[in-house]
Amino acid sequence: MTSSELLRRFEQRRLARDAAQLAVAQAEAETTRTEELVQVADQVRVFFNILADAQRKEMEQKVEGLVDYGVQMVFGPRYRFKVVSELKGKSVRTEFFILNDGLQLPILDATGGGVGDVVAFLLRVVMLCLVRPVQRRVLVLDEPFKFVSAAHFQTLGELLRELTAQLGLQLIMVTHKVELIEPATTIIRVSKGTGGSQATVEHTAQ
Q1: Which of 56, 58, 105, 120 could cysteine-pair with 37, CB 3.0–4.6 Å?
Q2: Helix/strand/coil percent split, the chain, to 5
Q3: pLDDT of residue 185
Q4: Complete domains list, the chain, with CATH
């Protein structure tokens, strides 16, 4: 076997290894995102269960309205968010669904294209707004929109601007997606230098 053939085989194996490592990393990230969505959905369910029937229906409508509005704003009118609850004995069973062109799917089955990221974020916003006594509306998020396609960054940025303005919400967000920093009023860029990490602060005109 010639040296060029050896190099070619080595490169093929290296590429195969890198592809396998990337697939594992993506699967782990997907699992983490699913666990986060399950966690925040369960928190909303618990909140609904402790409310009286009339209060629960009112809150369900508010949750459905806000999340539905945000999902449609980012992904378009073909997507809808729906809350379905029913009384089972003395407890309430609440489920969340995404409607895509009329097809109703549980949110864990309809998370492709970043829909799950946006739903999880909006449910966190809802919970923050419902907390009593009222707390300062601050959300600290680490790569919350990792799976959102770049095609939706503009509408996602518009949603972030609107929510922060209308709800008095402060977002502190870590992201590698430079397209999502446009709505920010303060940007802290962290880069690696020879002496360690370096941070620069920028203030926008917004």
Answers
A1: 120
A2: 55, 25, 20
A3: 82
A4: 3-203 (3.40.50.300)
